[in-house]
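User
Please review the sequence:
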Amino acid sequence: MRRSVSVAACVWAVVFVALVGVHLVALLAGADDLATVSQWTLMPALAAVVATATRWPRGRVVTWTLVALGFSWLGDLLPSLVGEDTSFLVMVGCFLFAQLAYVVAFAPAARRSVLHTRRVLLIPYAVVLVGLIALCAPGAEALLVPVAVYGGVLVAMAVLATGLGRMAAVGGAVFLVSDSLIALEAFVPWWDLAGQDFWVMLTYTVGQGLLAAAVVRGNLTERRTPTPVRTNTQRPPVPDNVVAFV
């Protein structure tokens, strides 16, 4: 039987898009309180899309994607609840665990990713990683090693995401852009992008949304694949008594 996305998932998808719109408008309008509160709602709404669009047992990819969205939510929420001195480290820590969860989720698809299928495409990811670390190194100082580790995990997520198809590949790349913008603002003194917060959150929500959509699509495809039925021709032949006797 053909299965499609549930009504609940469609409703939550509309809610997610609406919340993203509210958040981005709040950023552009300088409504800081609304921007902060609306940011807290984004990942729960996206997680609700994934949860209602999939069914139990959800499997490794969906489960770890939900874990990643959970850590992403903590990365959005906790920095607002701690002091300014530790908010950045708390955010990076939460998103590091989010990226690790995505790596675990996407690892089974590694053989379908560019890591095995088109290794030449690893070059742009490597260039981005090396270039980002090189730009951030002077300003990162004692945080250089954590920055390099986070960058490596982030790029690994983006590379492995290509194993889930084009939608996930774009989502991983856009997510990579989002976190790169944060790193550049934090560690590169001359970096001054107009509307920095807007572009960070736009790429963040688009990247996460595409990754979630790819995971849901993959889950739906698996559910639509009929389970092989064992037929008589697949059973081991039963020896004829006469032949066996002879």
